[in-house]
Design a protein that fits this description.
- This protein has helices at about 15-20, 25, 45-55, 60, 100-115, 120-145, 160-170, 170-190, 235-240; strands at about 5-10, 30-35, 85-90, 155-160, 195-200, 205, 210-215, 215-220.
- The chain is an alpha/beta fold.
- The chain has one domain: 3-Layer(aba) Sandwich (Alkaline Phosphatase, subunit A), CATH 3.40.720.10.
- Helix 5 packs antiparallel against helix 6.
- It starts with a strand and ends with a helix.
- The site of zinc ion (ZN) has 5 residues, from helix 7.
- Zinc ion binds near residues 162 and 166.
Length: about 240
């Protein structure tokens, strides 16, 4: 068993669905909900920024405005990643995520909701879902390969549950499939190390056939922990002391 510390970061992984689908590998030794009530809304960029800097970054991120906040890049020195010798961070919002991929998916989402035409909607949705799967596969490959590369810390960020969930949360078959794949990735990681944190920024709740962010996140640790309802800013310290 290797010694690498792994953060398996999953956007919008919903506690209720993990239990409902019985995703055993995502649940690990200790799991539960995070407390994100200090934030006015469950916003992805605010939450991951706060996670990596171990500070509440809501004001700092919101002060940039709706468009500019997606371009936030916290320097390594302001994150707890600097505590590691050879950290590898994959596609994390607020650090190094692929702006083109995420811009395109947000543009398609906008187009979907602005279009009145059924066929256009169907086509936009198809493209949006395809892009999400394709990006998911590429991050998955890089993440699993990184576990073999001699890093002391690896973080992989997976957006598919969020991206697919926004347009397809009512499609239980699709949600079950993506959760199953996320669960299988956890099983792969567990073969490589016994220091794994699975962490989401927020969960997801149904709004008709669509999905919107829920007001708590999900965490699970491969080790026995008595965290109960930790804040997202608590984890940097926990991980550097492992
Ligand atoms: Zn979202």
């Amino acid at each position: 068993m290797g010694n690498v510390i792994v953060v398996y970061a999953i956007d919008a992984l919903e506690h209720i669905l993990v239990e409902k689908f019985q995703n055993k590998n995502l649940m690990q030794t200790t799991y539960g909900k995070t407390d994100i009530t200090q934030f006015s809304q469950p916003r992805t960029m605010v939450l991951w920024s706060s996670f990596m800097t171990c500070e509440d970054k809501e004001q700092a991120v919101l002060s940039l405005g709706d468009e500019k906040m997606w371009g936030v890049r916290w320097p390594l020195e302001e994150t707890f990643f600097k505590e590691f010798k050879n950290p590898k961070i994959i596609d994390l919002p607020g650090f190094n995520y692929d702006m083109d991929v995420h811009d395109k998916s947000r543009a398609l989402l906008k187009e979907y909701f602005e279009s009145e035409d059924r066929q256009t909607k169907a086509e936009v949705k198809k493209q949006y879902n395809q892009d999400a799967y394709q990006h998911h596969r590429s991050v998955k490959k890089e993440f699993l390969e990184s576990l073999e590369d001699g890093h002391d810390f690896v973080l992989g960020y997976f957006s598919a549950a969020d991206v697919l969930g926004h347009l397809n949360f009512g499609n239980k078959t699709m949600m079950r499939m993506i959760y199953k794949d996320l669960d299988e990735i956890a099983a792969e990681v567990q073969k490589k190390t016994d220091k794994i944190l699975v962490l989401s920024d927020h969960g997801m709740k149904a709004i008709g056939e669509f999905g919107d962010h829920s007001e708590y996140g999900f965490y699970s640790t491969s080790w026995e922990s008595n965290l109960e309802h930790p804040r997202i800013t608590d984890f940097g310290d926990i991980l550097t002391r492992l």
